[in-house]
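Supplementary notes for students who missed Thursday's class. We covered one full example, reproduced here. Read the sequence, then the structure, then the short commentary at the end.
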Amino acid sequence: MSRAGHGHAHGLVAPEIRRSRAGLRAVAASLAVLGVTAAIQAAIYVAVGSVALLADLVHNVGDALTAVPVGAAFLLRRARAERWAGYAVVLAILASALFALVESVRRLVDPQELSFLGALAVAGLVGFLGNEIAARIRLRAGRRLSSAALVADGNHARVDGFVSLGVVASAGAAALGLTLADPIIGLAITAVILRITLQSWRTVRAAGPGVPQGMR
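Structure (token representation):
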């Protein structure tokens, strides 16, 4: 019997498997970075008890959790699963925006004086660096693999990096005695998150026909 008729298509399967593994590696690496980031921020939050830091921590944990649907999509190796994972990431970004909006308005109505400003600023810098590293891992892999889901997830990580910089800015403003600067910065962050939500939605929506054949 001819070996050509043994029913396997190694030349077609191999690229699909390589793409799946590359996507999973990127997701796992970014998840590890964000896990370390969240752990450091959680330790500082226990010591400081800052509501601003708590909000940033929630953002970072939410960003880490978006790795679950994206990783599942690569594991299943299906274009439709990957696209829906992209939409799940967009919803996560939108949820971050709504959370930031509610917290900013609440603090605008009921300003809170921040304490332990040095530790708060360090936690914000840690959040920014962790998210930026995760964003670069996801965006680089997403563009290389033509994955709209990974690109959207990378944008989400970058959004949370901006949130962390907002925490640093709030700490600096509080040091100057500008109590209302914290909620105003929060509203500015919300506007950035909403903008990237729209950009990510457009990216995922436009990527449907362009997904590599191996993911069909």
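Commentary. The radius of gyration is 20 Å. Confidence is low (pLDDT under 50) at residues 1-13, 209-216. If anything here is unclear, bring it to office hours.
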